[in-house]
Each structure stands twice: as structure tokens, then as C-alpha cells.
Design brief:
By secondary structure, the chain is mainly beta. It has strands at residues 5-10, 16-21, 33-34, 37-38, 42-51, 58-60, 64-68. Strands 1, 2, 5, 6 and 7 form a five-stranded antiparallel sheet that branches. Strands 3-4 form a two-stranded antiparallel sheet. Strand 3 (33-34) and strand 4 form a beta hairpin.
Length: 70
């Protein structure tokens, strides 16, 4: 179901800088854009959140690191 998977991106201070939801074709892609434009070079963290299709339970991944190089 579209919208069951969310990608949240945070800066190194823990502030959410981007949030995306899966599209109708079931994909999520992130281009390094933040809520207000391109993100600066640096270290960011992301988390995937999804809902189990059977139980509806919310499941959160561990935080993972991504580095943006400009």
C-alpha cells in the first residue's frame, strides 16, 4: 500500500531535514534535498518507518549514516 513506508533524514543535531513517503509504485528515492532545498555537505542520518501489512504495527529501523559530498 502506498504511504506505508516513510524515510526520515536528520542532521547531526537530530533535527529532521527531510521526510519522504513511498510513491504509488512502492518506491522511495532521496536526492539529497532537504525540506528547504539542497542539503550542505556533511553527515546525516536516516531512518525507515513502515507499517506491517497484517498487524498494522509500526516498525522503525535503526538509524543509518549517509554522507553528502558536494
Amino acid at each position: 500500500n502506498p504511504g506505508n513506508i516513510h524515510l526520515k533524514v536528520f542532521n547531526s543535531w537530530g533535527q529532521k531535514v527531510s521526510e519522504l513517503t513511498e510513491t504509488a509504485d512502492g518506491s522511495i528515492s532521496w536526492s539529497g534535498m532537504g525540506n528547504y532545498g539542497p542539503l550542505a555537505a556533511g553527515v546525516y542520518f536516516y531512518q525507515l518507518i513502515f507499517y506491517d501489512s497484517v498487524t498494522g504495527e509500526r516498525i522503525e529501523s535503526d538509524f543509518q549514516k549517509v554522507v553528502i559530498l558536494n
